[in-house]
Amino acid sequence: MAVEVKICGIRDAEGFDAAVAAGADLIGFVFFPPSPRFVEPAQARALSARHAGGALRVGLFVDPADETLAATLAECPLDILQLHGEETPARLAAIRARFGMPVMKALGVATAADLDAVAAFAPVADRFLFDAKPPPGGPLPGGNAQPFEWRLLAGRAIPRPWLLAGGLTPDNVAEAIRCAGAPGVDVSSGVERARGVKDAALIRAFVAAAKGAA
Ligand SMILES: O=C(O)c1ccccc1N[C@@H]1O[C@H](COP(=O)(O)O)[C@@H](O)[C@H]1O
């Protein structure tokens, strides 16, 4: 089956059009104000309208309040909520119940023990995303261009669709997919020419490398 590809942190038409044209399956909008990739919900809605149905729209949040989710969704329709903070399984269950939407839980991975959390989240998560743990004291809980040991995921039975993330680039994504046995990948920094600025050529190269990985 073809590898799913998510391009995260899209903020402008160049990046959005390049991701859709390249065949990205999911487009990520970062609704976390401290991120250099933060996008206003109205701008995300305007971008999505460029290619209706072209890719699934993922909204990235970090420990969001219900009011933030409600206000964002009122402004910008989304297909999946990505939760990239310290949300608990109970919080995921509450968000799913209130908003009736699929939820993708991001888990930080440094050692095999970090994957134990999958069991607790599986009943309430529709998807998983595995990212490197953020550097201590860093400003962002993700999007840090930081890889982790991909082989920790090799041969693991993850009971939901999942994406591998963290420091992926057009040059390493095929190897990462093979090492982890990943059914999907997610990238932000690796397709940027400057922090927060997506590069169409890098997006095309990343999607081609990921889709071509065997
Ligand atoms: O991208 C961000 O700014 C971000 C902010 C807060 C939480 C998560 C964020 N990004 C996610 O992290 C992965 C990995 O990023 P990278 O490729 O290593 O830069 C990214 O794909 C987003 O899902």
- Order the strands across the largest sheet as they lie in space: 7-6-5-4-3-2-1-8
Residues in β-strands, percent: 15-25%
Order of helices and strands: EHEHEHEHEHEEHEEEH
SS elements, strand count = 10
Kindly provide the radius of gyration, computed on alpha-carbon positions and rounded to a whole number of angstroms.
16 Å
Number of domains: 1
Largest sheet: 8 strands, parallel
Mean pLDDT: 96
Report low-confidence residues grouped into runs of 5 or more: none
Bound molecules: ligand LGQLAAA5
- The CATH homologous superfamily name equals Aldolase class I
The SS-based structural class is alpha/beta
Name of the CATH architecture = Alpha-Beta Barrel
Helix content: 25-40%
General shape: globular
- CATH fold category name: TIM Barrel
Give me the number of helical elements: 7
In the CATH scheme, the class would be Alpha Beta
For the termini, the CA-CA separation is 10 Å
